[in-house]
Amino acid sequence: MNSLFQRVHQLDTLAFLWVHASKRFAYRKSIRWISRTGDGYLYILAALALSLLEPDQGTAFLVAGLVAYSLDISLYLVLKNVIKRDRPAMRIDFYEAWITPSDQFSFPSGHTAAAFLFATLVAYFYPAFALPCYLWASLIGSSRVLLGVHYPSDIAAGALLGTGAALVGLFVYPTLIATTGAP
């Protein structure tokens, strides 16, 4: 199994280097801005605004989101600290990332997980906004590779983690709302 992970890492490194060697991204500020929209502040602001403006649907969105993010963050921390995959700048001698990441390890991408979690909740509660939210989540994931702090498979794992956590939150929230008597 170790050789499988080594092969995945080799392919990831080749894809990462191809993006950075063959593409010149003169718009670093735009990429940084896209990445920063996934820092987490917008998620809580949107959920709180929805719960105030739309008590029934918005409260359900908030409760499902709280359950999902709790699971997401827990699994994210466990995976990061068990797998301990170094970030690209630590493994590739001649490469320097465009930003300083918030932690040491890269797998999975927390920004991508949170963005796909949010997009999945939006798709469920507000389907008309699903496509823009998934496009935005994909841009956040892409920005993390372009900024040099993640490999492509970190992004895929983050998308799976966030989507899975959102699905659990959507499964659990009706029981929580029924037990607490929230609208």
Give an account of the 3D structure:
The protein has helices spanning 2-22, 28-36, 41-53, 55-83, 88-91, 110-125, 130-146, 152-180. It has 183 residues and is an all-alpha fold. Helix 6 runs antiparallel to helix 7. The radius of gyration is 18 Å and the shape is globular. The mean pLDDT is 84.
Features:
single chain, mainly alpha
Hey, roughly how much beta strand do the residues contain?
A: under 5%
Q: Report the mean per-residue pLDDT as an integer.
A: 84
Residue ranges: pLDDT <50 for 5 or more in a row?
A: none
The N- to C-terminal Cα distance equals 49 Å
- Approximate shape: globular
- Helical/strand content category: mainly alpha
Count of helical regions: 8
Rg of Cα set? 18 Å
Let me know the number of strands: 0
Number of domains: 1
**Largest sheet features:** none
Written as H for each helix and E for each strand, in order along the chain, the element string is HHHHHHHH
Q: Please estimate the helix content.
A: over 70%
Write the layout of secondary structure elements.
Elements: H1 2-22, H2 28-36, H3 41-53, H4 55-83, H5 88-91, H6 110-125, H7 130-146, H8 152-180
Write a concise synopsis of the structure shown.
The protein has 183 residues and is mainly alpha-helical. 75% of the residues lie in helices and 0% in strands.
